[in-house]
UniProtKB/TrEMBL annotation, chains A, B, C, D:
<keyword id="KW-0378">Hydrolase</keyword>
<dbReference type="InterPro" id="IPR050272">
    <property type="entry name" value="Isochorismatase-like_hydrls"/>
</dbReference>
<dbReference type="InterPro" id="IPR036380">
    <property type="entry name" value="Isochorismatase-like_sf"/>
</dbReference>
<dbReference type="Pfam" id="PF00857">
    <property type="entry name" value="Isochorismatase"/>
</dbReference>
<dbReference type="GO" id="GO:0016787">
    <property type="term" value="F:hydrolase activity"/>
</dbReference>
<dbReference type="InterPro" id="IPR000868">
    <property type="entry name" value="Isochorismatase-like_dom"/>
</dbReference>
<feature type="domain" description="Isochorismatase-like">
    <location>
        <begin position="4"/>
        <end position="173"/>
    </location>
</feature>
<protein>
    <submittedName>
        <fullName>Cysteine hydrolase</fullName>
    </submittedName>
</protein>
Amino acid sequence: MDKTALIVIDMINTYDHKDAELLLPSATAVVPVLTTLLGRARERGAPVVYVNDNFGEWRSHHGELLDRALAGPHADLVDPVRPDARSLFVLKARHSIFFETPLTYLLHEQGIRRLVLCGQVTEQCVLYSALDAHIRHFEVIVPRDAVAHIHQDLAEAALLMMERNMGAHVCASRDLWR
Amino acid sequence: MDKTALIVIDMINTYDHKDAELLLPSATAVVPVLTTLLGRARERGAPVVYVNDNFGEWRSHHGELLDRALAGPHADLVDPVRPDARSLFVLKARHSIFFETPLTYLLHEQGIRRLVLCGQVTEQCVLYSALDAHIRHFEVIVPRDAVAHIHQDLAEAALLMMERNMGAHVCASRDLWR
Amino acid sequence: MDKTALIVIDMINTYDHKDAELLLPSATAVVPVLTTLLGRARERGAPVVYVNDNFGEWRSHHGELLDRALAGPHADLVDPVRPDARSLFVLKARHSIFFETPLTYLLHEQGIRRLVLCGQVTEQCVLYSALDAHIRHFEVIVPRDAVAHIHQDLAEAALLMMERNMGAHVCASRDLWR
Amino acid sequence: MDKTALIVIDMINTYDHKDAELLLPSATAVVPVLTTLLGRARERGAPVVYVNDNFGEWRSHHGELLDRALAGPHADLVDPVRPDARSLFVLKARHSIFFETPLTYLLHEQGIRRLVLCGQVTEQCVLYSALDAHIRHFEVIVPRDAVAHIHQDLAEAALLMMERNMGAHVCASRDLWR
């Protein structure tokens, strides 16, 4: 799969926000899956782009965000999936990875047309980002075991919406970068 | 309710697109509800903004779109909810009412901060538009009997997402502009 | 020149705005040049896109704008350059042809990569549109005899900026679609 | 002046790009002026927002950009105007400070309506940013001794354009935060 990027959404996280307790079990299950997927993507030289909330911190850059997350009580969910020296990084202020960020520009510039969306939250940022990617004519792949949810029922509906209405390919992470 | 606009999404329609057959029963139920709501909003002087797909027609304006829809086999679903002389009109090219349209600009310019989203399709354009409105800090109200769906299950999930994750107020149309 | 569109900026105009008196001599000189250029572009089947201010009228479409301009005292400046049945039309609310309009989407969708910018005002909308086109990686051509100015000195500087800093090709209209 | 932010454009710079030789004399003159202005703004508690090119480095954050600039031959032009612990920071990929950046969102969120634009280059990024600020209805102030140019003639024209066509207030830096 060339021209395909792995997009890691909101995994640099202190997990101290509203609903974090509901998210933690799912995030805990996703981290090892995503770790494996990151390893395979990096091995193949696929571009990895972290797109992460700035948590209202307009000063923050990925170093600061990462340091804070690694200093928190849930460092074990952050350390395995941290950016490496080649990772690209885009800060977002709101839900969608595309809203007022340079992501469209970055992806076009690098000739990336296909996005593997991973991270959290399935029925929120992942869903919204899948929509915004589809609107912009990117091809979207969502490995269902590499996205974490808060509400199981909404997550199931979100995956169905992505598949049925946004042309996304929902698959298992083991099918990617094999 | 001042500073509140009624937003009518994709109701100027020939209903000859994919999935139209699935949409028609729901749209048929929505038209009289929306007609009443339009009447009440107009009576109170609330701004009414039609935001409608251009159906790939970059020449089209609302006159042409309306003429075509009124000449089609489903004119009875279009005629009762047609724009009047005071209606505003914004063409969109993709799903969300905000994507590459002047809608944000128009709403800010007119001091409108609260949007009543009506029309179709609940689990598609209405959902996406509710999200994009929320991201832009508009207050969103969705009268559940004034939005039409293709798939009942996804529509239910969409309304739940709007309420739980996008801060939308989901209500009955009879509660608006009473 | 394939994949090249002729972009006609703000020529559907009643010329009753501030500074119109300063603009009229230049616009009067540009109209016959643009008429010839429109003829040659249409003959070759090049797409012609009118991008025009909505003059604050959110109801307006190109029919209404055109009718009003043709009913005004400067109809002679509008009639020769009016849209024909194949012309595309995009309404803008602010200076740049790209600001909160679907123009980027339309151009990408039609595979258009090169823009010939004509119309008015050289040191305002034409300059801003050239910049926004350059930022979006479109190739820009500006026929200097087909753009109208309010202030000669600023127009000269604007053309120099387009050429030197925005990678635009400034030429004579007779060199296009020969 | 409350609700006014000092915007520092592209001053974190290695000055090894095309035209840097032409820019250096003007930048050298601007640095002490901007240093004084920064001091006064910080003393008054005015928000200071650095908006800086990422120089094609999608990994970069302000720490990395700053380190690189301070390690280069023109560290003396960067050190006096470096961000402090309260400075906000926005990366841009293209000329305008608003193009695909979260700046509009940040400014609205912080209630900032008036922008003092400083830095470089007068007839390029400063001009384009003044335009994009004006289009978005921000009030713009440009202290003419705190902006650096490459070409004197175009810079003069650019300042005239900002004043005449973009409603900007062009002044002397000594008149700000007195």
